[in-house]
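Input set for joint prediction.
Command: fold jointly, output tokens.
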Amino acid sequence: MTPVKELAERAKAASRSMSRLDRRKKDDALRAIAARLRSNTASIGDANRRDLERAKGAGLSGAMLDRLGMGPAAVEKTAAAVEHVALLPDPVGSRSGMQRLENGLLVGRQRLPLGVIAMVYEARPNVTIDAAVLCLKAGNAVLLRGGKEASETNAALGALVREALADSGLPADAVQIVPATDRDGIRELVQLTGLVDLVIPRGGEGLVRFVAEHARVPVLNHFKGVCHLFLDEGCDADMALALTVNGKVQRPGVCNALECLLVHEASAPSLLPRIGAELIRLGVEIRGCSRTVELVPGAKRATEDDFGREFLDLVLAVRIVQDLDAAIAHVDRYGSNHTEVICTDHHRNAERWLRDIDASCVLVNASTRFNDGGELGLGAEIGISTTKLHAYGPMGLEGLTAEKWVVLGDGQIRG
Amino acid sequence: MTPVKELAERAKAASRSMSRLDRRKKDDALRAIAARLRSNTASIGDANRRDLERAKGAGLSGAMLDRLGMGPAAVEKTAAAVEHVALLPDPVGSRSGMQRLENGLLVGRQRLPLGVIAMVYEARPNVTIDAAVLCLKAGNAVLLRGGKEASETNAALGALVREALADSGLPADAVQIVPATDRDGIRELVQLTGLVDLVIPRGGEGLVRFVAEHARVPVLNHFKGVCHLFLDEGCDADMALALTVNGKVQRPGVCNALECLLVHEASAPSLLPRIGAELIRLGVEIRGCSRTVELVPGAKRATEDDFGREFLDLVLAVRIVQDLDAAIAHVDRYGSNHTEVICTDHHRNAERWLRDIDASCVLVNASTRFNDGGELGLGAEIGISTTKLHAYGPMGLEGLTAEKWVVLGDGQIRG
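tokens >
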């Protein structure tokens, strides 16, 4: 048996008892993980320093090094996040939609864990803890395959989680750190039918595509976010400005940042000069269609390539469109099923946007930045799925469970 | 472009307008399909006769020929089923869980169609209509890849559905009959990433496994049903008999028929002789463990192979187990995540069964035969999924849709 398969077999065996745990036992284990994180701050820092030195030697960019860091502040923040998850309701065992049928059967659904979840991700070692505790709280076992850059940090974090589980009387095997070798290792992991119930890839587009192309087990993709904001005819000018600036500037490097502004041609002359000037003042590079360039001094001419692009930077594509239909057609063509906003005061247009746009989160008069598990009330998120099935949008604890049918009878048979 | 890919491209293009239709337009189209079924009864019968003659020539079994038949009675039954689907609520556009957050955002989920669904199935030509109308009602386009045996019947049915769509102002391309060539054609179909949103295989285990192994797009498997009934200590003797007989005898050839009876050792001496005698009287062959054979005159000795087996016939495996834990362990090992029943009067045991059994439908004191979309109140079903994600158990219209997040704001931005 290969090493990866052996880890998966162990996780599978542990998943059965994980699925049958009381909430209290799981929450106690989570608190034990938080405590161990704090008491191991120094040794986590040591492992992380070795990763950082290796990364510097390999010439990683400053932004990448920043993501890789796991100093005392990051450890404390992670521990606090674990304690927060312990406070969230346990989705497992909850029943919904229980209805009494004519024959007396009481029928509905009951949540159960998925089983074994494989996380495949890059950089950020805090994901190791965040993903582990969300999977555990939802009664799953988890295989954690992080990036090579963070391998020492991830190994240290994985070891302490396993110790905390064992101390709490839970199976340590419910959490497995899969060594970050090469992509063959990922390929093997995502083809373990019967052992892995779901794989969640998080990271660059290359990694997500690799997983999607090679997986034999169900995948919830977390693809890029090419998020649009459409400023409708007659929309509120101040709101249009605020939503544009917030979407683009507040945190440009994340997947729910605004990447493309669409403006109704009737509103463009009044809205765009002011919005454009403010964006440029804030350091945003504007790449606009020909009419945008006429209205916004300092705007550059966009190439076809700039539409449908995830800049993750202070760059915004801008296009003036004829009407709502043209805006929807643009999103159909260039969107990434992530986050799409309309700014409008027309009820019908708002409803058409909500119906016609196929994206994990569709918003009316609110910033793209709200497509986030915390902001939408999930308490915590393991990522934002752009796969339509099972979970579309932010995935929290509920997204890490499934529902079975339950039927309570009194001897009913079929006639 | 290959022929299969071209059909999928056309379905994809049609799916966009399908997703934006009012319920009334879809229901009118469904009624037009029912009308055309009735007015084409003769020509459907002609096509079906050609399929049946070819099948007889190829030496298909009587049961297979029976499944293949599409005479006037089957056409009328199918047309009536289509009209029934027209009466069901449309899941598309319904909103749920709308909550007002502290910042004033109104947040919840709205149902949307999946897009393009590929059905891969065998024999029974009525599936062509049943699957098409369920997919259409849920706003999807559908690729129908039926069995080679039914190819003339399926072509005739597909043509009339497309005519009915065109007559109703809907895109005929929303329904595509994929020619039944060889398994390479299926392989190509289930690897059309970006064109096919979901594949649903229905048929023999070989077909379902082939699809599961080769798919690159999400699959909802419909694997076999190895359904168990556990008779707990102290359960009602009459109920135990009724549930056993109904599960095994009422319709032995279907996936929710009972295949294995587990009996608590304390109850076996009082229950098994009577149940065994009744089953044998009804023509059931009993394959039991050594103790079963002692208690039931006429029972045969089971081999290891008889446990975990889907007989689809008047054959029942029987095992006496030590207690509830042993029964659960047996189901863990031999079950197929389909349908599992406990007959008990102990509250705790009932709750443990509901929690611990991982199956699409878990029942207390009711026949296995109730795991069915119609019986559980779905109105109609496209199959019973044994895949845990997205839909576990009977899949109706709701299972053919997904949910996106919707956010209604008044200019909210993130701080």
